[in-house]
Amino acid sequence: MEAATKQNTKNKFGQYFTPKVVADFMIEMADISQKSKILEPSCGQGIFLDLLQQKGFNNLFAYEIDQNLATEYSFVKHESFVSAKIEEKFDLIIGNPPYIRWKNLEEDLKQELSINPIWNKYFNSLCDYLYIFILKSIELLNENGQLIFICPEYWMNTTHSISLRNYMVQNGYFEEIYHFNETPVFEKVTVSIVIFKFVKGKQNHKQIKVSKFYANQKLIAETLDKLKNQVEFKDVEYLEVSQFRTNVRWLLQSDEVREELRVLETNCVKKNQNSGLNLFNEEKQEFHTVGEVCDIGNGLVSGLDKAFQVNGHILNEGEKQATITVVKAKDLKPFFAESITKYIFINEGLDENEFLKAYPNFYTHFQKYKSDLGNRYQYNRKINYWEWVFLRNFNLFNKTEKRIFVPCKERISNKDYFRFALVDEGVFPTQDVIAIFRKPNTKESIEYILAYLNNQIIFDWLKYNGIVKGNIVEFSEKPIAGIPFRLIDWSNNNEVLLHNTITELTKVYLTKHDKSILPQINQSFEKLFEIV
Predict the structure, then answer these.
(1) What domains does the chain contain, in order, with CATH numbers?
(2) Which residues is 200 bridged to in the sheet?
(3) Of the given ranges (132-146, 175-189, 351-365, 399-413), which has the lowest mean pLDDT?
């Protein structure tokens, strides 16, 4: 839904301005005649209407809930598309529908939805305002009519949109999808955006043309033209994707990757679970997860890392004891850490005179950082400038066992791996690192877990199922805990042998860093995934 140039900060109607170049591109996607009946359900300022008229399309219909917008078009009905009684059918419905999460909806819009038969049949209060615009638009299409929308991507794979996705599969098929990951299509909007062309009618088994653009740069006509014609250039990926199916998440990935993830999830499904459908007819399968076999914690927070690093100072004996060993995110590699750093760690509840007396070299070191340290977030307590601000999960990190570290953020635009690294006991993570420990009752070795997390199949799973913002995958306790995990059947000798082989090969790799060992580890996992 387009917005006036000056938007209200609250943005009641979920309005965002559509760039002219994008609207023009979307109109060019349509396969229609000059006589085609065209509807825009949320026309905003009228950029689509203006361009359609310029191109000779005059059989136009439009709705706009905001009385202040599109006042120059005599055919625009200033009422809610959601509640409008519309008898006509259309050959093309095009535009930029509003996007508002239920929790952000104004009360009058919630009331409108609460009495809407479409909303009550397909949706609930976990759903997005966007969904009814998509579904109602499809209902208003003629057979073989086309729906071309630009909107956020998230509804394509969330649980709460399963009823919408099932309806779409049952009533038509996709021809084209354009996915913009880090591209700033709308001002002040950072979510991934898609433009899709959906055709109402019998399911078509032709592949969906998917174009993915990853660059963080403003869209121009030349870029869009290249995407349309699938011209190879930097930061672009083209896929042919099979038509989507009911009761599954829609992932914009190749059929090969889909099959790979299906194999992974099948291997991790819990046995003897109650089969059946949930409220939205979604087949709910429960997986064994990393969270079942591992404890996971976010790293310690100093509030100013550079102030706590021991940088070659001459130290007395007490100061040498008042340090901890830390691995920073930048020093992590797949499987191992390249280096460690000594950090000052004083947690004795001293006053400043006691601190000066016991740790004179540290006292001198901290003086140049004193002002910045005083401005750290205090977590509702008084924190001395030589102390860490948040020792979260300290008891977990203090366990006398090896642990796996991974950066809490990883850019994947230029790599196809994550950096899960095994580090020794006594090494601590700071706030840019997440730590993973075997639970006491876990039989799988820490080396097996390490190799599993570094496997390509886990990278692919997280790329499509993790918390991904732009090209950044974010790690914290919850997303790591949710990774499907391949438990070992300890009554199966073949599985036990494969587990032990992976463990021993990983130990050798950690010692020698010989990359010829990695294919052997991967082959063992491939054999393990064949055992279902």
Answers:
(1) 20-252 (3.40.50.150), 292-530 (3.90.220.20)
(2) 172
(3) 175-189
Q: Give the separation between CA 93 and CA 146, rounded to whole angstroms.
A: 6
Q: What is the pLDDT of residues 328-380, one digit of tens each?
A: 999 999 999 999 999 999 988 899 999 999 999 999 999 999 999 999 988 88
DSSP one-letter code for 433: E
Q: Burial level of 7, CB count in 10 A (0-12/13-18/19+)?
A: middle
Q: What's the predicted TM-score (pTM) here?
A: 0.72
How many Å apart are CA 22 and CA 187, to the nearest integer? 13
Distance CA 487, CA 270 (A): 10
Confidence at residue 248, expressed as pLDDT on a 0 to 100 scale? 81
Per-residue tokens: 373: 């340290």
- Length of the chain, in residues: 532
Dist. CA 414–CA 253, nearest whole Å = 17
Q: What CA–CA distance (Å, rounded) separates 258 from 208? A: 14
Q: What integer best gives the mean pLDDT of the chain? A: 89
User: What CA–CA distance (Å, rounded) separates 427 from 424?
Assistant: 6
SS3 category, 512? helix
Query: Measured at the alpha carbon of residue 190, what is the angle toward residues 291 and 462, in degrees to the nearest 5?
Result: 25
pLDDT at residue 151 is higher than 50: yes
Q: What is the pLDDT of residues 460-477, one digit of tens each?
A: 999 888 877 767 888 888
**For position 280, what pLDDT does the model report?**
35
What pLDDT is attached to residue 71? 85
Give residue 125's Cα distance to chain centre: 22
Q: How far apart are CA 254 and CA 257, in angstroms?
A: 5
Query: How far is 319 from 316, CA to CA, in rounded Å?
Result: 5
User: In the numeric block, which tokens belong to residue 178?
Assistant: 């354009």
- Mean per-residue pLDDT, 471-484: 88
**Beta-carbon count within 10 A of 37 CB:** 17
The average pLDDT across 405-425 equals: 91
DSSP state of 197: E
**Token pair 């299409």: residue:** 141
Better-scored residue on pLDDT, 19 or 506: 506
Burial of 431 per CB tally in 10 Å (0-12, 13-18, 19+): middle
CA distance 302 to 432: 11
Place of tokens 């109650």: 274
Structure confidence at residue 16 (pLDDT)? 63
Cα pseudo-dihedral 419, 423, 428, 434, rounded to 10: 30
Tell me which residue of 294, 527, 304, 300 sits closest to 422, measured CA to CA. Answer: 294
